[in-house]
Every structure is written in structure tokens, then in C-alpha cells.
Amino acid sequence: MTGSAAPETPAGPHQAAQAGPPAPGKIIAVHISYESRAAERGRRPDAPSYFFKPTSSLASSGGQAARPVGTELLGFEGEVALIIGTPARTVPLEQAWGHVGWITASNDLGLYDLRSNDKGSNVRNKGRDGYTPVGPQLIDARSVDPSALRLRTWRNGELVQQDTTAGMIFPLAQLVADLSQHLTLQPGDLILTGTPAGATVAVPGDVVEVEVDAPETPGAPSTGRLITHIVEGEGSFDPALGSGPSVDDHQREEAWGSRAAAGLPAREETPDDDGLTDHTTGTVTETATSPTAKPTEPSATSGSALTAALREKLERVPVAGLAQELRKRGLNNVAIDGVRSQRPGTTLVGTAKTLRFVPNREDLFTSHGGGYNAQKRAFDTVGEGEVLIIEARGETGSGTLGDILALRAKARGAAGVVTDGGVRDYAAVAEIGLPVFSLGAHPAVLGRKHVPWDVDVAVACGGATVMPGDIIVGDDDGVLVLPPDIAEEAADAALAKEAEDAWVAEQVAAGHPVDGLFPMNAQWRAAYEAQEHRG
Questions:
Q1: Which carries the bigger pLDDT value, residue 20 or residue 421?
Q2: In what order do the strands lie in the sheet with 207-213?
Q3: Burial class (CB in 10 A: 0-12, 13-18, 19+), 285
Q4: Which residues lie across from 134 on neighbouring strands?
Q5: β-strand 207-213 against 150-155: which pairing, if any?
Q6: Is the model's pLDDT at 441 over the cut of 60?
Q7: 140 has which bridge partners?
Q8: Does the keyword 4Fe-4S apply (predicted)?
Q9: Is 521 exposed, middle or buried (0-12, 13-18, 19+ CB in 10 A)?
């Protein structure tokens, strides 16, 4: 290996016996190779499969890896890297490990936004400059048991990957022997041996560290930590030259490691729903999006009961009147208790889009709280006329949104936000003008009490169950959930009752006693109906 990407050979008893490696002629990477990764992906390969990475992608410890402007899913994968010491061609399994000269750490970076059109070759998404950091030091392969190596990866100091080569589906020696059946492995060639569970997404500002060691070997040889700084790239892609970035929810699931980690709702698998093999070794049909846009998702308002005419009615009817009509129809548990608008006089009408938080647990916040989590996805995909309903379990000890997310919701045309939790940047959120109903202000960030978990699922907000697509109405009296199938009926009845109450108020103001008038007896009912008929 040459240049700044070359690991430093550590001083030790094996250094004199084996010179350092030459520059690699090729880099070969393995797809799914760990049992933990296979379990995470839900598919276990019968045999190893491979792809090439260009040597121009090599980088050294302490370097930078750029996520291009307009992309979202820069995935990192800590891996054990083998460096070939002597030529290997058609070598038997029992002799294969003898052709490995050194072991080092590697980070197999890839940009999932560029996977769709390469059909498994990974040329664009994993071949970019700086996307194969290796190092910083070498372990002499003859000094360790290849089944007793430990791999660990940290993101911003948090351990996110930890496994050993004993947990591999295909032993390291098998990978060497198998590849040697098809091509000659030359001294210096690199084999990136696959990643265990826990590989996920990095964003600009993140620091990813990878270390390989042999803790059971005397002296516990180690590669040291391979450090990569994730930065925002410059420039853009020219669509006239070739296909550009595109992402969909399947790519998010693959990049983050699971639908839950990506903030996606669970879905049912069908027998034919294999998804992509790891690193897109199979064929996939995707919905392309622009580099900066999120994928189009069905809006709860699309085809819903909230027509323009019904919206106009609900904007006129008081929530208290609707509550009375719902009670008449046997619905007593449709009030989102405790929430109040930030600004008196605010009204709210829209269809529900839901976001669920679960109580904070440190390991779950590590896996689900960072990156493009469920909270960010909810605010990025809330549709025009939708009300984002947040289940925060009535916990007021942290914020569930702040000014940036409120701005995002308003920019997307959201009708408002209802949360049975707190709001950060309370005054700033109020100034934005987006209707927000909450339990009050709190300065703490999300991770103090909550883990963002699900989007577009049934939630419990303020003691009321809310389904995606339910109709939400709010005013100074509070917030109600209207089942769509009776919303029109309830609105018409509430408006009729409002007209009746207005007439009763006129009679009281004229000096009539309320006895027999409120509620109306037969005499007063006849007078009202006669007045209505004349009107």
C-alpha cells in the first residue's frame, strides 16, 4: 500500500520476519458474511458474493469522507480487512490463511442514494474517493487465530458495532480460498470481509471509528482506531451525464439497518418481498426522487372524508358543540386532554398524521434517536392540511418539537401540531404562526425523556386514540378526534345546534327566563321552528 492510505506496521516480534505490504492492485469486498448481519437483514446467503472497489477510494485514518450535497444516506460499515502476503491461485482451504500477510481495520463507506442503477456493482456508491479508509496499523496474520478477531465500530464515541470473526457465516480462510478459484490474489490486494449488525448512517459532523483486535492473543494486538470524519461535500450531479441520487423507504431501511432505526412504520412482508440483497446484489425497482426531495408518501387527506366543504363547516363549528354531538353518538373518549393552544383564538382543522415516542432508554436512543429518525421523518413528510399528532405519554419533562421542526411543518403546509408533551423554543414556535397545541413549554431536548419510534401508526395522545387519517379539530376549548365516517353528520348537527343556541341566547338577552327555554320545551321549540321557517 502506498501514499497516505498505507497503514503503519506496528513494531513487534513479527515485523522483522515479514516486510510491509505493497500497494494493492485490487480491493475486493464481501456482501453479507456475518450471522448477525444476516439476521438483521432477514436473509442468509448460501455462498459468499463479492464486488470490487477502486484503489482510488483508499483513505487513511484521520481523513474525511464527503456526503455529496443533496444526498441523505451515507452508510458506514466497520470491517476486518485482509491484506494478501503471497500470491494465491486455486489454493485449498487448509492452506488459504497462509497467503494472508496482514490484518487491518477498514470502513466500507457507501452512498445508498446512488445504489439504484448499478445493480450490485456498487461502482458509484462505494467507489467514491475516500470511501475505503483503512488502518491505522497492521496485525501480522501469523500471530492470531483468524476465528478470534474482534471488530468494533463507534459513531461519535458510541459503540454501534461489536462482533467477532467466530460469528461469521464464511470463515476468513474460506473467502481467500473461494476467491482464489476465480482470480489470482496478488500481494497487497485487500479483501474487505463484510460487516456485522449495527452498520448504519453517518451525517456531516459525525466521527466514525473502527478497530480490529485479538483480545485473546498474548499482547492483544490491535490495529488501533481507524478514524473518519464525515463532512458535507460540494458540487452537484449533472443529470445529463447519468442517473443521479434517488432514495426510497427501502433504501432507508437498508442504510439504517432496520425500518425502526430509519423511523419507518412496520410493514408486512410477502413471500416474494425479498428486498435487495446486501449492497444491491439483486435487482430492484425503485421510485426515484430528486436529490433533495423526500419520497412522495400517501397523504391522509387523499381520498379522505375531509372535503373542502366539510373543512369549511368544521372551521365554523365550536369544538364544544362537536363534543356534545359525539357524546350523543356514544363517543366519550375522543378528547385529547390537557393540550392548549399557544395563541388564544387559534382554530385547528386537519387530518391526522401520527408520530409515536417511547420512553427513553439509552441503548434505544443510540440506535433510534440519531440521524434521520422517526421525528425528522414525520416533520419532513407531513402533508398539506395534515395535523401532526405526537404521542408523548403526557410527559412534560422535555420538548417534542422546537422552532426548526415547526418551520418545516409550516413550510410543508401542515394544518398544525398536537402533542401531549412539551415544546422547546416556545416563544419562537408561537411566532411562526403554526397552530401548536401542547402541555406547555420545556427547554430540554428530546433524548431526556423520549425515543422517536414510529410514524403513521395508531397513537395515544392525551388519553385519546388517534388513527392516521382521523379528522382533528381544535380551538380554545381543546382538541377532538373525529372518526371520518361520522364527521359530516356531527358537523351538520353541531352547526344546527349552534344556530338554535344563538336563537336561545337572543331570547335570554331579551329578558326571558331559561326555565323551559334552555333546553327548549315544546312551546319554545314551536316558536323556534316557526322563526326558522319564516327565515
A1: 421
A2: 63-67, 226-232, 207-213, 150-155, 158-164
A3: exposed
A4: 106
A5: antiparallel
A6: yes
A7: 102
A8: no
A9: exposed
